[in-house]
Amino acid sequence: MAEEIINRVANSKLITIDLEDFYLDGKRVVFDIKDWLFEGLLLREKEFRAHVKNHDWSLYTDSFVALSCSSDAIIPSWAYLLITAELTNFAKKVVIGNLELLETVIFNEVLFTLNIDEFENKPVIIKGCSNKPIPESAYTMLISKIQPIAKSIMYGEACSTVPLFKKK
User: Could you tell me the pTM of the whole model?
Assistant: First the structure.
């Protein structure tokens, strides 16, 4: 008779945190204002305001939007604010920057509200691999939040972890 195989990982008190579980659904969009500039370089207020007024902002309903300008133009702050004032009625989140900054801001807000009580005095594994675009900074935000209460923190998969922290 063969001896029963016991899954010690499944029976342990290890808690695995997968940041993919906190990834908010919604389309990510980079909104480049370059095409609304004269020759891609100069913001003319009257024409810019006309673009903002006539644009179909409903296209960004429930989206996360990163505002940027891919040309070397100097953009006054009010231009981004004018666009944001329109997008706020439709988009879930608007930032000035790229997609990585957008994801960082989203994860910052999600992790800020994370209830960490279940991690108190427990060994925690932060899952490493993901299929969604999780910014590296989300991992640093997470460890900063749970380290004060966790017993230990590891990174990777339960079968192969890298120790990061152990409470003394």
Answer: 0.84
